[in-house]
Amino acid sequence: MSWKISSHGDTAVYDSLVRMAQLFSLRYPLVQGQGNFGSQDGDSPAAMRYTEARLAKISQEMLQDIDKETVKFTDNFDGSLQEPSVLPSKIPNLLLNGSTGIAVGMATNIPPHNLKEVCSGVIRLIDDPTITPLELMENIKGPDFPTGGLIVGKAGIISAYTTGRGKVLVRSKMKEEEHKGRQRIIVTEIPYTINKSDLVIQIAGCVKDKKIEGISDLRDESDRKGMRIVIELKKDANVELIKNQLYSHTRLQDTFGIILLSLVDNQPKILNIKDILAEYVKHRQLMVRKRTEYDLKKAEERAHIIDGLIIALDDIDNAITLIKQSKSAAEAKENLMNKYSLDEIQSQAILDMKLQKLAQLEADKIRKEHHELKIKIEGFNEILADEQKILNIIKQEQQDMIDTYGDDRRSEILDVEDESIDMEDLIPQHETVVTISNAGYIKRIPLDTYKIQKRGGKGVIGAESKEEDFIESLFVANTHSYLLIFTDKGKVHWLKVYKIPEASRYSKGKAIINLIEIEKGDKISAVIPIREFDDSHFLVIATKKGIIKKTELSAYSNPRRGGIRAITLDDGDDIVSITQTDGKQQILLATKNGLASKFNEKDARSIGRTGKGVIGIRLKGNDEVVGMLLVDDDTNVMTLTTKGYGKQTKASEYRLINRGGKGVRNINLTEKNGKVVSVKAISGKEELMLITKRGMVIRTRADQINVIGRNTQGVRVIRLNAPDELMSAAKILSEEEEVQKEEQKIKEPAKKPEVKHTPIVKEDDDEDSTEEKIQKNSDDSKDNDEKSEKESNFDRIQRINKMIRK
């Protein structure tokens, strides 16, 4: 092999030679190498002085007949050598080994294919020139990569074979093993062109970043016998879920973009699979014709010479005498030409004939050769006169290639578009605690992490936060729920709960900006879990300035990468509470200064997603709305304050007034209990999750907190060390309560509890909500206030008794 064929030096030539010898680069290697020719880990090959190479057997098929004037030879880069402009190639190498290249304004990316399939496709095309690309796919199933793998679906293959462009999804092959009671995932094949070493590093990075959970160890046990990447799983890990995570987050699943661009008459064209095979058949027709013409010419030249020899043999004695009597070779040649009517070539052949040819046996061989040449010449002429005979020769050549070099597919093609199990189906449904810090860190923690404590307990550490950071939001949601994340600018983003990284109690979590595409400067204002979107439910938004907005839930069902507008807010206003309703509820708005307004949801008309909303409660001074509840007369309103106090009050004690009223007393606020920080609707034996500014968490039962009147201070719920304050609360249904609710749904799936309505008072009665008239007690709530006052006196007596005992 000559090295003087490139203007780039022998290094570029050696790199090409190395690639043609790599079993993982070419489906049918064209060079047989000995020595270090690199690896799938990206290792470089040895220097050329340490390696040896020779043409592979299949390469001879590409070069066959190159010496029969079949292809045009042109000057190389410096004109010192001649090189073929194209190879005769009995195999369709463009499809077998593929091609990748980038030029100005164009690119080609042809994948490797299986020889048996492609050659059988050539045969079928010759038999039926009207065949369609889709029908050819019965023979050519799809790409066949040297590294194997799984091709997921046929849509990309169909697109590529019919239009010349397409994308195929290539997935690694995995198998499962059990070792010492634990499961292993063994990767035996990876997608084409993927660096194995980089892939292992990528998997390790995903495990470190907790994008993939459940992997305990990772190592590469590949050797010369084959690939083997071992992924050790943790005990009780979900194997199918981890597989899907590996496919989603690593290049164990990769996309191969197909562009079937080729040079046709030196013009770049994008071809479909039939066009490529048709061009190859045309090429082979030309090669077979030129080869036949060359063979015919050589046969005719040899037959012409043998014709002269036979003439001389028939009169050998006179011919010898004529030669002996000639004074020179030139004269002898002239005498033979004149006597026997021969041309110069025939006369020279007679003079060059050895004496041994005069033997009878040798003479018979010459006559036999003459007969065979006549048959060959006749056959060559028949081939050149009939194009179908040329096509039959090509068919036979392709069948010979199949018989000699054909092998089975390495890449398996999956019939379904995506065989993977839906990741969400593999994730168990359970309640989980989600926390969001003031600095924008989010995490989820298993609900059973927190032990139930009695009222007044100290709690456990729920989050490790810096002094300048604190937990701002806490709620409980199902792992399959959507999170609608609302920002202070009135936009909403979508996030599945299970996509939130699970963390320990002491972890600060993951920055939420890494999970959603939130705009710079935006702050999370509210988060609500939604299981599914429909037209029969509404999303009600309450703001701290007392605005309420009701919109059909289906208006939020089309997520966008950057979120969508949820509400138009006035300057200085923020979202404080969001809830899902059926349009027939009673709504209670509570403020930080201890007022509450209960009105019918029907009073708030449904408006568009980007609307501003209507007034829900009229505020005085610096008062702000802290929460919104859906209540009925059987509901208790749980009110919690910044200094760890709380109480329950029957929702029936809150008069139903017109939307936009000033409200009534909700809790009696003093220096002892602080301002209202949260309100919750309690209907049974729920549990509460409370969290403080410094990250302390307590889980307690709601029924341990007294049910008392509106005009009371409440009881201590959590003991706080100054200057810590209660920041947030979440309601948790007890297991018994959930079972009872599910049983009730089965028994009465369509029945809805009847909501009792108290008479709506006139707007003038809203003056009763002022502090002066509450202290005087209105006639409507006199009995309840007297009862509450007694309970308040009881609390004071108990506190005095404790002081006396101390």
CATH fold-level name of the largest domain = Neuraminidase
Query: How large is the count of helical segments?
Result: 18
Instruction: Determine the N-to-C terminus distance.
Output: 105 Å
If you average the pLDDT, what whole number results?
A: 82
**Number of DSSP strand runs:** 40
Q: CATH homologous superfamily name of the largest domain?
A: DNA gyrase/topoisomerase IV, subunit A, C-terminal
Beta-strand content: 25-35%
How much helicity do the residues have? Answer: 25-40%
What is the approximate shape?
rod-shaped
Main beta-sheet strand count, sense and barrel state: 4 strands, mixed
Q: Architecture of the largest domain, CATH level 2?
A: 6 Propeller
Task: Give a quick precis of the structure.
The chain is of the alpha+beta class. It has 18 helices and 40 strands. It folds into 5 domains: 10-145, Topoisomerase II, domain 5 (Alpha-Beta Complex), CATH 3.90.199.10; 173-251, Gyrase A, domain 2, CATH 3.30.1360; 300-403, Orthogonal Bundle (Topoisomerase, domain 3), CATH 1.10.268; 429-448 and 472-531, no CATH class; 533-750, Neuraminidase (6 Propeller).
